[in-house]
Amino acid sequence: MRFLMGVTFIMTTFGASAQTCSPLLNHQFKTLQGQNLNLCDYQGKPILVVNTASKCGFTPQFDKLEKLYSQYKSKGLLVIGFPSNDFKQELTTNSEIGSFCKLTYGVNFPMVSKGSVKGENATPFYKALIKASGTEPKWNFHKYVIAADGKSVQSFYSATEPDDAAILKLIVPHLK
Question: Which of the residues are catalytic?
Answer without folding.
Answer: 56
